Amino acid sequence: APAGAAMRTEISTAAEFVTRLLRAAGGIGEEQLRCFRECLQEALREHYKHHWFPLVPSRGSGYRCIRINHKMDPLIGKAAGMIGLSHERLFQLLPSELTLWVDPFEVSYRIGEDGSICVLYESPQPGGKPTKPLESRTSCKEEWRTGRSSPSKNYNMMTVSS
């Protein structure tokens, strides 16, 4: 299969994730979001074309990595420019520290420099090599859930008793 077809799931997963972050921030129309997602997918496809090695998934990982840390990732910046979003606006809408790894068979991300790595997409590699175990598979989602509501929940349970 040509690299383009092989990368499709990984790239659409990554583009959809960034689009979801923008949607969650609010204030951007669905039509703009759709255009952003398509532009980003196109930019990623172009960028990764000669840097996709399914037999050695980690090769070129740094090149494919999408990063926001006080600098806007140029590919995200380019797609946002297509719908009239400035870099300043993007910094308000997206996490200020975001790393997204788009590798063959796995797409994962980290928010914050010390955040846990969360897997967005994973598929077994052909040839049956087991993918690397991730200690933080559930912890990242749990952190989000418990981090927000843990103290008040226990408190409510104590005060309810009549």
UniProtKB/TrEMBL annotation:
Residue span of region Disordered: 124-162
Record InterPro entries: Anti_prolifrtn (IPR002087), BTG (IPR033332), BTG-like_sf (IPR036054)
UniProt record, GO biological process: negative regulation of cell population proliferation
Domain Anti-proliferative protein residues, every copy: 94-113
Organism domain of life: Eukaryota
Biased composition annotated in UniProt, kind: Polar residues: 147-162
One term under GO cellular component: cytoplasm
Compositional bias annotation for Basic and acidic residues: 132-146
Gene3D superfamilies from the UniProt entry: Anti-proliferative protein, N-terminal domain
One Pfam assignment: BTG
Family affiliation: Belongs to the BTG family.
Record-given protein name: BTG1 protein
Organism of origin: Atlantisia rogersi
UniProt gene name: Btg1_1
